[in-house]
Amino acid sequence: MAREIYIFSGLGADERVFQKLDFSGHKIAFIKWIAPQKDETIEQYATRLREQIPTTKPILIGLSFGGIMAVEVAKQIETEKVILIASAKTKHEIPIYYRVAGSLRLHKILPTALLKKSNAITNWLFGAESTSDKALLKQIVIDTDPLFLRWAIDKIALWKNQDEPHNLIHIHGTRDKILPYRFIKNVIKVKGGGHFMTLNKEDELNRILKQELMKESE
């Protein structure tokens, strides 16, 4: 049965990171990132993103920061399923060192030029291995609005959520260096998958997604 699926891309990314995933047979729409307003909370931002979802009981799929936003939107509307890829369900899955840095506001002093730089370190962190993956990551970094990036990093580091959506499915790679696997609970494991695994573990992800989308919700 065809499902209506709304997809939240990763921080600063867009549908390019899903180009190897097969959603044939389903109606999909990609949520567009919008500029955050001054002093906007993550809950308020989720409310504005929600305006892009006219469907009753949709399926939400979120990658990385997109997964965090999918969780926040799911707290405001009824959903059929929420599927996270390389993301976090609650604040407890955000590494403690991010949360400590957030409480000390250390992320506020990072130079914008550093946040917007793609190099061997970012390739390693994201798990971008092939030439094409590295080129795409570099372009995504270039295309990311620095103001949105700073706002989102702040919201990730200070995320307070402790509630998991009903019918949540979490897919996570064992080699994710951004959100390490050891901090993540109750997941479908992708062996060797990194943070960029939508592009280099597509066969395994397509198999898992097909299986999960075929299941009837409880």
TrEMBL record:
Q: Which UniProt keywords apply?
A: Hydrolase
Tell me one GO molecular function of this protein: hydrolase activity
Residue ranges annotated for the AB hydrolase-1 domain, each copy included: 44-206
Q: Which InterPro entries match?
A: AB_hydrolase_1, AB_hydrolase_fold
Question: Pfam families under this entry?
Answer: Abhydrolase_6
* The UniProt record lists the keyword rRNA-binding: no
Respond yes or no to whether keyword Hydrolase is given for this record. yes
What name is this protein filed under? Alpha/beta hydrolase
